[in-house]
Amino acid sequence: MSIAIPLARVAVHSAPKVAVRRLGPNPFFMHAKRVVPNIIGWATGLTVFFGYPFVYKYSVNKLNHVY
Length: 67
What we know:
Keywords: Membrane, Transmembrane, Transmembrane helix. The chain is 85% helix and 0% strand. It is mainly alpha-helical.
């Protein structure tokens, strides 16, 4: 986990530069088919990753009827 945070920061900072260099001046609109699913995928992945403990706790409480 401690390794993932700096890697994510580096990726966030370098991704736009790489995208502009590879795809042209407006990569988002030119390659929306590729970019949008990636954003959705990352958002979903991070939401699941960080949200899972809370959902798990909540569902266990629900199942055990502990409020």
